[in-house]
Amino acid sequence: MQLLQPPAPPEGGAAVRFHLRGVSMDFGAGKVLDDVSLELRDGEVHGLIGENGCGKSTLIKILAGFHTPIAGTLEVGGQEVPLPLAPAQFRDLGMHFVHQDLGLVPSLTATENLFVDAIARGLPLRTLSPAAWRARAAETFAAFDLEIDPDALVSQLTPTECARLAIVRAVHEMREAGFGRDGRSGLLVLDEPTVFLPREGRDQLYALVREVAAADAAVLFVSHDLDEVQLLTDRVTVLRDGRLIDTFRTREASSRELVSALIGGELQEFESHPRPRARETRPALTVRDVTGEGVDGVGFDVHPGEIVGLTGLLGSGFDALPYLLTGAVRAQRGEIGLGGRTHALGAMTPRAALAAGLAFVPGDRKRLGSAPQLSVADNMMLLRLGEFAVRGVMRDGALSREAARLAEAYDIRPRDTTVAYGSLSGGNQQKALIAKWLQSSPPVLLIHEPTQGVDVGARQQVFEVLDEAAGRGTAVVVASSDNEQLAQVCHRVLVLSGGRVGEELTGDDVDKHRISEAVYRRPPSREREI
Amino acid sequence: MANVTKRPRSTAPADAERAPAARLRAAARPLALDRVARNYGLVGAWIAIAVVFALLEPATFGTMDNAQTILGSQSVVLFLALGLMVALKVGDFDVSTAFVMAASAVILAKLNVEHGWPIVAAIAVALAMAVVVGLLNALLVVYLGVNSFIVTLGTGTVLLGASQWLTSSQTISGVSQSLVDWTIGNRLLGISVQFWYGVALCLLLAFVLGRTIVGRRVAFVGGSHTVARLSGLNVRRIRTGTFVVAALLSALAGVIYVGSQGGIDPSSGQNMLLPTFAAAFLGATAVTPGRFNTWGTFIAVYFLVTGITGLQLVGAQSYVQNVFYGAALVVAVTLSRLLVGRSASETDPSGAS
Fold first, then answer.
1. Interface test with A, best of B227, B234, B291 (most A CBs within 10 A)
2. pTM of the prediction?
């Protein structure tokens, strides 16, 4: 990414208009923010990074007036503003937000999206003719080098164009409100707007952010992608477990320092991973060149009895893999080998995957995993209905006895399998789903976020069940962003980055800290250097 | 995995012994009164309005004759409502059923009356037309992904136009007496035989939907297309099948229509549209509330006609029919919404899982 010169940091004496002091926040169970202070200088891009749950979204929500902190103040232009902010007061202070979902309306044009705030509030634009509107939009886009047709529907723009449009809109609104260029400086908060963007085209987005900072405002850039923060920011603040660990001058901080601040452990040596020992068995599943949904040419093998973890940052593609492998989402290309046969993923369907011996427990139990209004037995036994039918007629007695047996074996509570699946607790729902997929002893089990929304006790049981399945020879693939869980259950972990396998951890390296490190560390690979 | 502690797992034989006990416990569970009230409230309402009208009009409404007439007159609506119910069960709208019914009746009457075809051959052609319409609906909705309401509204209207064109919008009458005999002429327990066709169809559908593997799959597809697809069910084939079944049952409704009227008015489909929807949706508030079901639909059809007959006998004008069906549809959908909403909040105390 040589397009961007490392920015010249603003002078130490640069004006500070936005200053958060000593903010603490508490949701009843311990502090989620503990005495956090942020000083945002005019003209700087300030990174805010931390792992999931570190408190960065809470901090942003306090700035936007959603949350009331238990302590702390906000100072704007030297004047203290009482917290919490009134709804939409942030506008009057010159603060504007671009969230991860960007807040664009896909069915409207770029012009309409640009002026959505004015439309919603019935501001003077009402009196402008559509042509004048369009001309103003074209002018605004030109001013930011945004080469999009003002009449284009947002649904037709590329993801990167959408992100830039959202940022331009925020800056436009900021200027309309009398901040930015030539006025008092504003604050632009970018809350992970890049997570789902492809690598290409990000340079233009970074250039736009730098331009905004130089002319208009302080920019607070929230991310958990270390690369990006190092590329784009002047200073970076690291949060961990609700505490401010440190604020670094980005140019002077090494990746090592940042990673260890981020995950709170010591950084290990880079190339120390032992090679995976050779296995006697033939792989149960071979994956080759899978591409699509942000995954870019991934290949790996999984052996019978092995539990392999897939992880990475949000947007790295790790969580798309199970869906691509089972045809739940159609891949552009790639193939899998299973039971001596090769299946092209371009034509894969969940039905074919199941027939080939690939069981898949999706992460979203409610939407993808179950019919919550049907009974637990109906949900659990769906794959085996044929076994309990004689000439098409169900043997309900035998079916419910088998369901009861499974409820016992997998410790599903309550044992009564006639209750609606949706009435079970998260942990029991997950156990029932795993029971559904494991009862036919598939050669390969793919599972996405196996313990999301699962209480601690059931979590352990889920691990045991996975471990036992592996003990019986099932090859298990776990896609999860929960590094602690991966460390606990996996024999081997593949860390994805930018859609590719960046690193493979085996043996002693399958450890919470080492996985986190690998996730956040810039991989020494080629594809990042464009 | 060293850090995963093993839990002793009970063996299969022990489980098998324990299972009957669990079943006993389930059987002994007292039937909650509010559940009975909720599931069979519509039956209660039906009985209640029947009693009220019988007391108000003992000479006309409160007679065995009237009861037999009411029961013997609704098979067309029942067949249509059951066909629609099957489509609704997998999550698809089918607005075309009433027009398939009319088109089937037109084909049957035209072939039999004007061309002298034997009745069985004419019925076969009507059923074949229904299969074609069902497949066309499925092609557009299931395979091309067009909204089912729009598609079936379109195909239904095309059928209405075709029916009017084939008959020059004239009523055809004079179909074979044997069809009339086998629809309304013959009676069993004093009720015309078409009622018993409806009962037989309910028994068949209740069995297929409730007791067979196909029924389970239909229920699951209705539960969630995505989940069913991820579980390896052939969702497209099942939805196609239900469109065809809906059309076939509608064509049979057309046969019964011709038999009970002795002929056909080609525009009659329009009058059947609302009663069909009202019955199917009202049916979803009974027996297994929140789900479209066979016996609920059966009860709903006769509840609605009882109400209308009673109102007419106490002196209401014929417009009452539209008011009653329209109101019933809105009330039914609202009730279903409330029932589903309530059970959803009951079943998910956490809301977070």
1. B227
2. 0.73
